[in-house]
Structure formats: structure tokens, C-alpha cells
Amino acid sequence: METRPASKAGSWYTGKPKDLEEELDEYLAEVPETVDGSSLPIPGARIIIAPHAGYAYSGKNAAWAYSCLDLSKAKRVFIFGPSHTLGFSGCAVTTFAKYATPFGDFVVDRDIIERLKEAGEMHDMRVRNDVAEHSLEMHLPYLYKRCQQTFKSPEEFPKVVPVIVGSTSRADEKDTGRVLLSYLKDEENAFIISSDFCHWGTRFDYAVYTPDGDIGRLSSLHDHSPKPSGPPIYETIRLVDEAAMNAVKSGSHDAFVDNLRLTGNTVCGRHPIGVAMAALELYAKELTDENKSRFKVVKYDRSSEVIWPDDSSVSYVSAYAVL
């Protein structure tokens, strides 16, 4: 197959172009006209973190990141997402020439893919896992919509550079960050980092709780545990997510890795975020403006507010950085 099909259309989101456009328009219309004192899109905001759940769950949150994203000079968009279908180490690149959406196809920048593959010692993603993976696909309809708003015709749309990130160590992420640095500095490149945040519940093997707000002393609940008599469970979820978001905003890759080691927070895109933060930290050393190359969180949501130990939720975050 030359074109990766939109395999989640019709299940994770509607596959009917008209209905999908109406849904995305509705979500985008709910974002304020200004964010952080800037009109939208935010000039120079070439990198975002956005969630990848079904649009019924995370679509409204993702609209904030996509409203901030500046594509005005983009010739290509790198999309880094975690692997949910295959366990592997390092990064894998797509073998497809195009990625389909219900609106139309994106062309893959095969030249950049080959350069990344060689420089970062990346391997090819298995076709069946590439097709099954949702962490990249869920961003494509939003990206297509924003491209329609930015460019005169699909012929002018940027190409995409899809990369799936497997298991990576702290050192691995720093190495890949160095590979990305030159691309990060080029204003013709934009970046989408795909990640949901805390997956809370026994079905995720992460049901932590703290009665006193100390995330350094988290206990584990079970399905048959009694309802906590202290603060509701969703307050603990908020605390561990806020700690992760603060680490993301710090600009320190080590701070982010250390935070997740402390809390065990199940941020599914922790490795794509880690790669991005490693690259941003290197770039920040070359800049004099402390406001640049630092993520700013603009929206935080949870799929539900957990009260009972046998319940579950997934958290969603939208963030951007000006480069």
C-alpha cells in the first residue's frame, strides 16, 4: 500500500467529511480569540503537545493546541507519537508515501524520513502496526483543517514526517533531541507531539492516591478499596498531572524524566515529549529570550472526575512553544 488508510475514521471519529468538519469547527469556535495575550494562531508557535483520544473525549481539548499552532511558514510537519500496538526500543519511521484523512491525503516527506532514519538510527515501522496505531492519525484531521485555514490549496499544504516513538531511555531521548535540533531551528518545520496524560484506574495498573497532597508518598488503591475519606481521587490525579505539566513547562528534560520516575504517572506520550524537550533544551541554550523554546500549557481536562476506586479516567493537555 502506498497510502496509509484513515483506519480510525468511523470509530474514533466520524468518517463523513461534512460531519467531521462541523465537529472540528465547533470545537475550534469554543477557543477564545486570544490565548496568553496573543491573537491566534500564536506567531512562532511551531510546536504543540495535543491529545490523541477519540474526539468525543479529547477533541475540545486538542482544539486549543491546534488554534495556537502557527503553520504560516511550514513546509513540513513532524508528528511524534507513542506506540500502542508494538513494543520496541528507539524510534520508527513510516514506510508509506501518503497518509489519508477523510478530507484528503497528506504527502509524506520521504527525503526527510530517510535522513532521520540514518541520523537517528531509526527503523521502519511494520505496516500493520502503522495502520493500527492511532497516536498519529488522530492529529491528521485537525492538521488538515488548520492547513485549509492557512493555505490557498492542498497543493500548498506541508508534507508530514510521521515518527512513532517506542521505549527510550533518558540518554536515548537526548540523542534523538540532538538529531532534531537543526530541524527545530528551521522555521519551515512545525511539530506535533502526541500524548494523553494520566491514565488512572486499575485497568491501567495505575490507581494512586494521596490523602495529604504529597505526591512523593502515593499509595495504590484497588477495585474493592473503600471510597477514600479524604480528598476525592480526582484531586490526586490533578496533583500528579500538575507536577508533570510543571516539569514540561520547566524546559528541563531531566526534570520531566525525574518527575515521571517519582510519580509513575502514566503519560502515554512521555517518550515523544521527552525527545521534544531534549531538543528544546538544546535550542534554548542558543536563545536569549527565555519565553521561547518553553512549553506553555493552555488547557487541561479529564475524561471524568474519579471518586470511586473502581472508576477510571484519562487526562488531556494542550500546550505550545514559540520557537
From TrEMBL:
Q: Which InterPro entries match?
A: MEMO1_fam
Q: Which domain of life does the UniProt lineage start with?
A: Eukaryota
**CDD domains, per the entry:** MEMO_like
Tell me which family the UniProt entry assigns to this protein: Belongs to the MEMO1 family.
Family annotation (PANTHER family)? PROTEIN MEMO1
- List the protein's name: MEMO1 family protein
Can you name the source organism?
Trichoderma harzianum CBS 226.95
Q: What does the record give as the organism's lineage?
A: Eukaryota, Fungi, Dikarya, Ascomycota, Pezizomycotina
